[in-house]
Amino acid sequence: MLQHGKRPTIASRHGMVAAAHPLAAAAGARILSNGGNAFDAAVATAAALNVVEPYMSGLAGRGVATCYIASEKRVRTLDFVGPISKNFPIDKLSNRSQLQRGALAVGAPGNLAGWCELNSTHGKKKLPELFAPAIAIARDGFQLIEFNIEEIQGVAGELAGHKALHPEWSRVYTAGAGNVQPGFVLKQPDLARTLEALASEGPGLLYGGALGKKILDRLTELGGCMVMDDLLAAKATWRDPVSVTYRGRTVHVPPPPCEGFQFLLTLRILEGFDLAKMKRNSTEHVDTVLRAVRLAAGVRIATGVPAPQKLAEILSDAHVETLRARVRDGKPVIGPTEQWTPPQEPVSPTDESHTTSFSIADNEGNLICLTQSLGSVFGSGIVVPGTGLCLNNFLYWADVNPKSPNRVKPGDQLPMCMAPSISTKDGNPILALGTPGSYGILQTQPQAMVQHVDFGLPLQQAIEAPRGRLTDGAEVYLESRLPPEVHADLRKLGHNITTGPEWTMKVGGMQGVAVDPETGIFTGGCDPRRDGYCVPA
Q: Annotated region Disordered: where (predicted)?
């Protein structure tokens, strides 16, 4: 049925890029049209996002990808989150708020390693061509669009309070004004030069080279603990995915220490309920999904980083059936959704869900979903002078609570709440789906999956469907496009509902590509909660 006022269905036979900014999606699509494959397009898209969403991700961030590799006829994942710094002063830390900004929060940049690994292992093009769109946008500038302005303005006041960080941040992103207005053209000549140098010299410029030394010198000046060995340890690692079946399809995500298994556990729980027979967006539908999400979050938090045998037990029929029984019993489900907290001591998370996810398909059969981040908006707040690089604050996501059984250790792999997913059916790729949103990533993807798979919505409409974000205790932030009576009924069932606006980025910014296995047609889905766009090749 035609829906006026909604985004159209974007379809193509030749390739598709769904990303969080139109210029980045166009950069990837250009590479596909010029003979590159999905791995090449992923590098071009990621690099362009560095320029047009500098607060969300960049080569000095970290991330993870899930890929269907057509030449190997299998799904693999690429982890470029990297280990915690060996000198990380865990004994001096007791609360994650100590790591929200500044040098101690910075994890070794992994995104560049990930991009280069995708390209060198499975790509066809060279870095100068792949970085060219990002370099041109950075050098020539682009006019900020609505979400750009909202993000920069939203953090300008807070960063102004960090006297050691603010001058360079303001110079690079606001031309020294401290804020931006509609019509502002953002030029990043330092970043253009950095990307040109990396395209020419390769990733060794960062990992062991002059660019890496420049980053380390700035961090040392600001009291950081990172050393060159940490940069050299920031390698991209291929791993086999962890997967479950859901309604006849197999859903794959990265394995631990990635925390995407929460998404899979939620799907396993929900498969025990005939959601398709429920009224879509009804109290019964939403209550069932919210209960499953909270239970799965509780298991993930109680488990920490599970070994393969433990993960198999978590996803087993016997364990999942106990969780399904808990969904059915109707008693309120109350508990943490973020990190471990002492009993009776819930913690309300800050709104630090600044990440980006994109999905790409090509006509060779490859399908990629990649999620990358700086952590918080503008990460650590540190912009390295003369480079245009904003450094991440990934260690803000490290559990540093001295009482927590999941407390991290220096040198350990960092658990990360990302879940870029690839779904297959009969061995063929049919869906790439990912989102930003911090711990909400693990909650909102199953909500969209239910809309798409159980209720049969086309991907774009499934992404647009109203969603909720759970936080500790019984708290749920729910978009107001769900009927008021549903909000009221959910409160009676024990959910502490806060009614949000009709659309909110608090429930993510999802991008996906669906593949019709019969026709081979690619259909893109992009989230209007952000500046998402689908561009066909």
A: 332-356
